[in-house]
Amino acid sequence: MYVIYDDFYLKHSNGPGHPENPNRLVAIKEAIGRWDLKDRIAFWKPRTATGKEVEMVHDKDYIQEIKDLSQMGGISYLDPDTAVTEYTYDCSLLAAGGCFEGLDLIFDDSNKSHKFFAVIRPPGHHAFRNHGSGFCIFNNAALSAKYAQARYGIKKIAIIDFDAHHGNGTQDFFYDDSNVFYISFHQYPHYPGTGNFSEIGRGRGTGFNMNFPFKGETGDPDYIAALLDIIIPVMERFDPELFLVSAGYDSHYLDTLSSLNLVEESYYKIMYIISYLS
Ligand SMILES: [Zn+2]
Description:
2 domains; Arginase, Chain A; 3-stranded parallel sheet; alpha/beta; globular; 9 strands; binds zinc ion; 4-stranded parallel sheet
């Protein structure tokens, strides 16, 4: 498996004391270093996405706004939780480009592995076409889906989001799209307020959006049951050519951003099932 990472991702800052901080990636990188199977992974450098590529998903004016705020320096807020600082624009382009680089690797038939893990920041699933929110600047999952479709002619894509929060931005991009199936497991009711069962898509996209709104204290038995009993049969029918996973780890029982009860092994189980599907 390829692990996309660059120390430059550590430069984006939301200001002091913020939960979305560089230590997230430092911890992941250190954990991979301790991992018994680390010989089976290859660290890979990201590339920088172009403004044109980001326009597949975001409005030109919004992209320019992030660029201008970064150039201004200091700290600007898109919402009370989401800051733009000196390196935010460049880190955001590198985050999107990291996903593109990963996709280029897995779609290259001469490469052995067809999986990648993008260890990137800032995150993306609360980012909308014309505004960022909830720590998110550019929507990396939406950009990945659009890039795979444009570059590799992929039609059907599943996005599975197990971050503790509902990926309202990602859902919004594909809400009336029957080719990109968005599935989210999250605490509910909780930030950002969306993600109920009843949100199933719109128009041609009806039935291609699925939310699992879990109460606080939910642990992996419910996640596994949902995956085995619902997601596997639904995905076998949908038959996507690519799985994208929004892998936020704030559903861990020690993370104070949610009161979900996943443990380290839960993520192994979840990814084992998604890997089976892919
Ligand atoms: Zn989250």
